[in-house]
Design goal:
Number of helices: 4
Helix content: 55-70%
Number of strands: 0
Shape: globular
Radius of gyration: 13 Å
Oligomer: single chain
Largest sheet: none
Distance between the termini: 23 Å
């Protein structure tokens, strides 16, 4: 697992948690649920997290990826279901981007 991606996602979670009401937070753990049946986030909070993650990843890797995709939310194995699946999805996106750029 890419440490830079992990740090960027955890930093985005910190930013989101600072904005959430007391008693509501996203755990910084690989198996922490994000979105879907077990997720704790409201839609707007989820969108905020996605935007924060995009911003952190794009700054860290000097890239311009977009991770929000409405089709991904409805998939059975959504990359947004947990911190781990989000990181795995980001690794794939960055790998695909570097492959297509070369």
């Amino acid at each position: 697992m890419d440490e830079r991606i992990l740090k960027a996602v955890y930093h985005a979670i910190d930013e989101l948690n600072a904005q959430l009401p007391p008693g509501v937070s996203v755990e910084k753990a690989l198996d922490a649920p994000l979105y879907g049946a077990t997720g704790k986030l409201e839609s707007l909070d989820f969108v905020t997290l996605v935007m924060e993650v995009e911003e952190k990843i794009n700054a860290e890797f000097d890239t311009d990826i977009t991770i929000a995709d409405e089709h991904l939310l409805s998939k059975q194995d959504s990359p947004f279901s947990s911190v781990r699946t989000l990181i795995e999805y980001l690794e794939k996106l960055l790998k695909d981007q570097s492959t297509s750029a070369s």
